[in-house]
Amino acid sequence: MLQLQGRRIGIFILAFVLYFMAALYCIYISRQPGSVAAIWYANAIMVMFLQVFAYRDWYIFLLLAALGNICANIVFNDPIGMSLAFIPGNLLEIGLAAYCLRRFIPLRQCIENPLILLQMLSLMLLPIAISASLGALVLTLYGLVPYPEGWLFLFTGSVVGAISIIPMGLLLALYGWQDFIQINQSFTFLMCILLALLIALFGFVYLPDPYIYISATLILVAFIGRFSGTALAVLVYSVIISTLIAMGVFQSSIQGQYMQSDAYLYLPLVMTLLQPLLLAAAMQRIQNLKLW
User: How many Å apart are CA 163 and CA 271, to the nearest integer?
Assistant: First the structure.
C-alpha cells in the first residue's frame, strides 16, 4: 500500500482506463444479436483496486467508476438518464463488496485455502444481488426487459465477472505484476494455457455442450499452474466464452427451452470456473506446506 501511495495519479488513471475498457466490452457484447445477457467485469476490477488503498481514497475510485460508466454509455449513445440511473447500484456493489472483503476476509489466505476462497466469493453475492435489484428496476422502467428476467441477467453476469476477475486481482494485489509473470514462465504452463485456449475457441464452436471439456482442461491447469495459472486461465476462458455466447456461436441443448436462455448459459459457466479455482487453492496449499 505504501508503494502504491507514491504512484497515486498513475494508479487512478489505470483504474479508470481498466474500468472504462471493461465497461465498453461488456456493453458491446450485451448488445449483440446473439445475446441479451449482461456480463459485467468492471465492478470487480474496481473492488480489487480498493483492497490496496486506504479507506480515505475510496471515494476517488468510486468517482472514477461513475465517470467510466457514464463515458462507456456515451460511446454507445445511451440516454444520459439511463446511464446515471445505473450508477447508484454499481457504486453500492463496489463499495459494499470491497468493504466486506477488507473487513471479513483474509485475502492472502484465499489463494491457498479453498474454504476461505469460497467464503469470499459467497460474500460477494449479497452486494451483487442488491446491485442487480436496482439495475433490473432501471431496465424495467425503460421498458427493456421484465424485472425478473432483468434481475437474472444482471445477477449472473456480475457473478461471472466476480469469479473471473477477483482471483487475478488477489494475485496482483498481493504480489504485483513482476512476481506474477515470474511464477508463470514455465514452458509446461504456457503449453497448458495454449491448450486451454484452443479448447475454448474450437470446443464452443464445434462440440455440443462443451463445458465438460473446459472443466477438464482447467483442472489440468490447476495441477500444473496452481492458483496463479488457474486464475489467469479462468479469466481468459471467461472472456472468450462470454464473447462466443454473445456472438451466437455457442449452441446448447437448453437454448430455446427457457425464456432467459442466455442467462442459463452462464450458470453452468459459473460452476465450470469455480471448481478449478477451489482445487487450485488446495493444490497451492499443499505446495506451500511442502516448501515450508
Answer: 10
Buried b (16+ CB within 10 A) or exposed e, 175-198: eeeeebeebbeeeebeebbeebee
How far lies 277's CA from each of 54, 94, 139, 206, in Å? 28, 22, 33, 26
CB burial of residue 135 (10 Å; 0-12, 13-18, 19+):
buried
Collect all residues with Cβ–Cβ distance below 8 Å to 41 and sequence separation of at least 6.
22, 25, 26, 161, 164, 165
Residue 163 C-alpha cell reads as: 469469479
**Could you give the residue ranges of the DSSP H alpha helices within 124-146?**
125-141
Integer Cα distance of 218 and 231 in angstroms = 10
The SS3 of residue 36 is coil
Encode pLDDT of 146-159 as tens digits: 888 889 889 998 99
Q: Residue 161: is its pLDDT beyond 80?
A: yes
* Helix pair angle (42-50, 8-30), 10° resolution: 160
How many other C-beta atoms lie within 10 A of the C-beta of residue 206?
9
What global pTM score does this model have? 0.88
d(CA 182, CA 169): 16
Q: Give the list of residues 6+ apart from residue 226 with CB closer than 8 angstroms, or none.
A: 280, 283, 284, 287
What does the alpha-carbon distance between residue 135 and residue 142 come to, in Å, rounded to a whole number?
A: 11
How many CB atoms are located within 10 Å of the residue 169 CB?
A: 23
Q: 43 is written with which cell numbers?
A: 465492478
Nearest CA-CA partner of 241 in 52, 57, 68, 29? 29
Q: What is the mean pLDDT of residues 239-257?
A: 68
Nearest to 68 by CA among 9, 131, 22, 26: 22
